[in-house]
Amino acid sequence: MQQKIHMVDLLGQYQKIKPEVDAALQQVIDRTAFINGPEVQDFSQAFAHYNRVSHVVTCGNGTDAIQIALMALGLGPGDEVILPVHTYVATAEIIALLRLKPVFVDVDPATFNINIKQLEAAISPQTKAVVPVHLYGQCADMEPLLAIARKHGLFVVEDAAQAVGATYTFADGTVKKAGTMGDMGCTSFFPSKNLGCFGDGGAILTNNETLATRARMIANHGQRIKYHHDIVGCNSRLDTLQAAVLKVKLPHLDAYNATRNKVAERYTALLRQQEKIILPTMAKNSSHVFHQYTVRVTGTDRDKVKEQLQAAGIPTMIYYPVPLHLQKAYRHLGYAAGAFPVAEELSATVLSLPIHTELAEEQQDYIIETLIHILDQSPR
User: Fold this and answer.
1) Does 2 score more than 70 pLDDT?
2) Residue-wise over 67-89: b if at least 16 C-beta within 10 A, else e?
């Protein structure tokens, strides 16, 4: 291949909107309103409108968003929070840092999202919240999850960092965006996300005015009025320069997601007959924005396949190689190997292929042709 293949081509994406981005950044510099400048409020309003949600509270990053949301709910030490075991560590990390107790459940073998059938069995008298993660770009099955949460009086905080722009359709035809269905939703604007800035950034979404007010205060040292600190908070702000970038990129988000879907459809069509590949499953009630195109490699050594692809100039990623219950930091919770068989199987077999808005068809063909060749030659 003459053109280098990237997992994410941030430079290529920037070059297509360079004049807009450069002008927006220059405006911030000219104003010198680098902290809480008008672009932050402008983006917050635009993002709220896009997601059809009443309130958006921006913050420093997606991990902070989860922390602020859980703090806003008023949970106390020892309260249990349920989350899927196959996810990025940040979701569990914040629960532990707040001296809450992470309670893991396995994931659905088809969608890799939280297993709703196992959720209710994990609820105890100490359970106060559940954090569904919308993994790889599609929503967890929220309708039954919300019903269980209502039945047991639990808060729901969505981790929508990988699914911005995805929609979920309820049985009555109601359609809602990822991050807007629970009490609060959290997202990240890390550069590689579908809606990414040029550094760190995050946001909390909610339709609850009281929770929005508390979240804003927590993100701003616990103050509503300057130097009057009513609650314990932290310092977590979306930088004005990052807000300016996000404001430019937001109108392109649906097109970005559509492009990712076209790449995913092409991958799926070309890989459909490969017996050593299990293709991504599309949930019946959620759209998919393909933050990742994640297959499962079966019948051969996934890690050797990854090495051979790398040698051929094709980067891939494993999300995630060790499930949370087997991570050293969480072994004290008492889960043993075998406790979550689906997550453990996924950790040994998942492989994410390059997918982004600038991936040319020639590159897609090369990726798939190379992968098929490697699989055809690989021992069982």
Assistant:
1) no
2) bbbbbbbebeeebbbbbbbbbbe
Q: Write out the two tokens for 293.
A: 């195109």
Pick from 284, 322, 330, 287: which is nearest to 303 by CA? 322
Distances (CA, A) of 349 to 48, 106, 282: 37, 16, 18
**How many secondary structure helices (H) and strands (E) does the chain include?**
13, 14
Beginning with the edge strand found earlier in the chain, give each strand of the sheet holding 80-84 in spatial order: 55-59, 202-206, 184-188, 155-159, 127-130, 80-84, 101-105
Distances (CA, A) of 260 to 295, 360, 367: 15, 11, 15
Tell me whether the CATH fold assigned to 10-104+113-251 matches the one assigned to 253-377: no
Which two structure tokens, joined as six digits, stand for 41?
């409020």
Largest CA distance in the chain: 67
State the Cα–Cα distance between residues 224 and 34, nearest whole angstrom. 20
Q: Top-level CATH class of 253-377?
A: alpha beta
Judged by DSSP in three states, 312 sits in coil
Q: Which one of 3.90.180.10, 3.30.2270.10, 3.40.50.970, 3.40.640.10 gives the CATH number of domain 10-104+113-251?
A: 3.40.640.10
Which residues are within 8 A (CB) of 361 and not within 5 positions of it... i.e. 6 or more apart?
266
- pLDDT tens for 214-251 read 999 999 999 999 999 999 999 999 999 999 999 999 99
In the chain, where the domains are located: 10-104+113-251, 253-377
Asked whether the bond before 267 is cis by omega within 30 degrees of 0, the reply is no
CB 62 within 8 A of CB 187: yes
- Whether 377 has a pLDDT exceeding 50, the answer reads yes
pLDDT digits (tens, 9 = 90+) for 141-185: 999 999 999 999 999 999 999 999 999 999 999 999 999 999 999
Cis peptide leading into residue 320 (ω within 30°): yes
- The number of CA neighbours under 13 Å toward the Cβ of 242 is 23
Spatial CA neighbour of 162 closest among 290, 318, 52, 354: 290
